[in-house]
Amino acid sequence: MSTALVLPKRPLGSTGLQITSLTIGGGPLGSMPGNFGYEVSAERGTATAVAALTGSVNALDTSNSYSRGESERRIGVALRRVGGLPEGYVLSTKLDRDLDTGDFSGDRMRRSIEESLERLGLDRVPLLHLHDPEHISFEEAMAPGGPVEVLGQLRDEGLAGAIGVAGGPVELLRRFVATDVFDVLLTHNRWTLVNRAAGPLLDEAAERGMGVVNAAVFGGGILASGAGSTTKYAYREAPAELLTAVRAIEQLCAGYGVPLAAAAVQFSTRDPRISTTVLGVSRPERVAESVELATAEIPPQLWSDVDDIVARLGSVHPTD
Fold this sequence. Notes:
Structural class: alpha/beta
Distance between the termini: 43 Å
Radius of gyration: 19 Å
Mean pLDDT: 94
Oligomer: single chain
Number of domains: 1
Shape: globular
CATH architecture: Alpha-Beta Barrel
Largest sheet: 8 strands, parallel, barrel
């Protein structure tokens, strides 16, 4: 039996959605060379989206702002090619500020979803996040008529099935989780082999019955290819102690015969608090390869050894 047939599904919190343990990230397929260091052609990006929509993964994550809408446009083309959104498929996008003016108003949120639905060719999305709320204050986000209130209205109006908050800074996200407004939490770069900053956040979200989405488990690439290929974590120069931790975990994985990338993925997918783990891909074949990473055999002892390394060297939080 192909491993592609046994990728497990889990409840996405209390949303009623069932989601595979992996979600394909749509950022790279739109071409974001500033983040990822390479270009992706329109046809390759579209073919990647087709592979994501027709493989064993039942979730694809994008955003209004990814490559200024190009990710959504390519996914829209792919959706037409496959005959529409497959039954039970969890497509998510995000409400974004205006990248030119910084406008993060409620009115801008309505324009954001209108733009997204037009590009995707859909009349609703199963999951809609408020994206990067760290660009305004918590009080501005929660104000009457502000972005959080409008996000709830969009769910009530049927434009979104479930709503979430997607961002970086852990303490800010804890404040949003505590409002009990959101169905889903998306955190990135803060729960990886070497960064455990999001631990309390994951606990609080899980205790509330929220769906938890964990993204950027490769930290921008270093936890996929190792410290010999890059010295950046989350697209910034990594501190020396983080590089030391990565090298130690690389050596550990090599000793077990386990790919570093597989350990990085399964560190997240094995966590009972996490509903799904987002992996960005930019080639069609990467979808099946991602499933292989998630289903590779890893000896249980490796996880306690990784924890020992982190305890000895310290969990490094270069993103906050």
